[in-house]
Write a structure and sequence with these properties.
mainly alpha
Length: about 150
Amino acid sequence: MTVIDWNSELRRIEREFDGLPPEPTNAARRARRIDELRARDAAERRNALVGAGARLLLVVALVAAIFWWPYASRCGFPLVALVAAQAMIVIGGLWATAYTWRHHFAVAHAIALTLVVTGLTLVAIQVLPRTGRVRIDGVHATGWSCAVETGARG
């Protein structure tokens, strides 16, 4: 003998009487939930891709701009500012590297690592000759501070 669930039968009859479609089955609900999750994951992936691209674009713009540094950077504060800007390339590259690693963007991760190496190279070109460790052709390392010329007055 089968037991009839009169509450569900009454709900089904009321829906039919009101002109509504029948209630979705469990399989239909599960399929709809899966479609919603896929759509949300695709939107999150798209947003993460835009975020990775924006981070990489900012660091690449800084790398490009560093070659048009407007100040003389042989010594003193302008040199410190230049090295700080080059260090920001390293920091921005690490920022992009962590983001691309977290979101599994392999190509963007490789680009971010390349930017980190580029920034480290630019910093090394300024720092190593001034510490006396390396001589680099084309880089005239004068020291960190500008020498103040004192002339004999007489």
